[in-house]
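Module 6 notes. Inverse folding takes a fixed backbone as the condition and produces residue identities as the prediction. Think of it as a translation problem where the source language is geometry and the target language is the twenty amino acids. Below is one complete input and output pair. Work through it position by position during the lab.
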């Protein structure tokens, strides 16, 4: 049995424990301070040209409204809110061919909590609109040129139906003088060539032309023909009774060539086999072009007959996708009206339409219309860079990265079915409006 002294000690210890427990349960813990939020901010270049830059501001995990500021050359150009993780900002009215330095700042009130790395963008230079032209008139009626291709400034082909005074007649020996199929520019003069169809034994009159080498020239001349450096062979024949006729040809390589024509006709050659591509229409296809790797190809078609139809195909890695269709040649109801031609550069296709130049970014699936060329009959669009786009037809148009110009002073009496543009050199082939002779024009910048 414990003594009175021991009992008192136990009682005291128990009381102390109870009081401590009561203090622990009755006094709440002081709240812990909330952790500082993440104020990371990042800045990157989305796109740029000659006089504008588009930047992307990124604030990771930005579930709330956040505020940011961008400075260019140390001076504030924008102070705004960011509602999503990424926001695009376009800085305009810049100078071509100039360095600009940007930095983004994360703001809390007026306090800067974080900043991005510094970013430098060099805007593209503009290209010159200034061309000097030389016109060569070749042959007699009914000479006309249908297509041209620049290999270099001293190596150019123009194809069509070329007649001279002594062709389509018998010479003094009674030999029938046949017309020519092509003209070749060697830097000094045009020399005429006949490409003789080895099946029918007559000169071909090409509508479309694709050069791969001196021993590999492909022709769309109703049917498909190939010149191997020695012989022009008939490779594929259309259905004449159905009114089919091939007009244009484009290829990324000799194992990836596209031919387009009337009555909805599209033919592909893979290096071994010609395949007829189903379009389920009878639209007349007038232009075709694609990316250098052949992954993206665009075909433009419009009818000359009633009922009117116009469409654009995007052939994405062999898969057919009609990205545009209208039954009106004039712009209406959000449509661009007639589409006349196509050029391709990088990830954009450039279409001349009745509403102006339609720029289609096929990677982002976004479109922009540039009305500067509205209602102009531009039958060739050649984009050799984003700041150097040329169009040729009843007029010529040029975009230098900052603005478009149009010029018709040279072309009032000439029709130009097709043109090519390489470096500072432009060539177009056509026919005088009175059909008296063929015409080729060379432009030097």
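Target side of the pair, the amino acids:
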């Amino acid at each position: 049995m414990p003594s009175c002294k021991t009992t008192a000690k136990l009682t005291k210890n128990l009381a102390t424990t109870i009081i401590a427990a009561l203090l622990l349960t009755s006094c709440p813990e002081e709240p812990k301070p909330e952790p500082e939020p993440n104020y990371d901010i990042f800045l990157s270049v989305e796109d740029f040209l000659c006089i504008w830059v588009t930047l992307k501001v990124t604030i990771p995990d930005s579930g709330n409204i956040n505020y940011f500021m961008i400075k260019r050359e140390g001076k504030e150009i924008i102070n705004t809110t960011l509602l999503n993780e990424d926001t695009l900002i376009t800085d305009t009215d810049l100078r071509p061919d100039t360095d600009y330095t940007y930095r983004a700042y994360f703001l809390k009130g007026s306090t800067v909590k974080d900043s991005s790395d510094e970013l430098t963008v060099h805007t593209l230079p503009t290209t010159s609109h200034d061309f000097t032209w030389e016109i060569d008139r070749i042959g007699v009626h009914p000479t006309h040129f249908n297509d041209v291709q620049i290999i270099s400034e001293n190596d150019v082909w123009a194809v069509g139906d070329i007649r001279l005074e002594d062709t389509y007649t018998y010479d003094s020996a009674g030999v029938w003088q046949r017309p020519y199929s092509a003209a070749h520019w060697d830097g000094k003069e045009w020399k005429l060539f006949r490409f003789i169809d080895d099946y029918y034994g007559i000169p071909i009159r090409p509508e479309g032309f694709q050069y791969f080498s001196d021993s590999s020239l492909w022709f769309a001349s109703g049917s498909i023909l190939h010149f191997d450096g020695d012989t022009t062979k008939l490779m594929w024949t259309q259905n004449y009774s159905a009114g089919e006729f091939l007009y244009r040809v484009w290829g990324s390589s000799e194992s990836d060539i596209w031919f387009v024509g009337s009555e909805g006709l599209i033919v592909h050659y893979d290096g071994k086999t010609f395949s007829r591509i189903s379009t389920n229409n009878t639209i007349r296809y007038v232009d075709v072009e694609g990316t250098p790797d052949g992954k993206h190809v665009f075909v433009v078609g419009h009818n000359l007959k009633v009922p009117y139809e116009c469409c654009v195909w995007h052939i994405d890695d062999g898969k057919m996708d009609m990205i545009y269709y209208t039954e009106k040649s004039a712009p209406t109801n959000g449509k661009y009206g007639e589409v006349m031609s196509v050029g391709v550069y990088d990830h954009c296709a450039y279409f001349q339409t009745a509403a102006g130049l339609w720029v289609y970014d096929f990677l982002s699936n976004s479109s922009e219309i540039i009305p500067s060329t509205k209602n102009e009959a531009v039958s060739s669009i050649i984009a050799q860079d984003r700041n150097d786009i040329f169009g040729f037809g009843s007029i010529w148009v040029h975009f230098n990265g900052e603005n478009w110009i149009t010029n018709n002073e040279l072309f009032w009496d000439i029709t130009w079915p097709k043109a090519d543009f390489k470096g500072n050199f432009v060539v177009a082939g056509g026919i005088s409006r009175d059909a008296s002779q063929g015409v080729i024009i060379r432009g030097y910048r």
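Reference fact for the lab report: Residues 4-11 have pLDDT under 50 and may be disordered.
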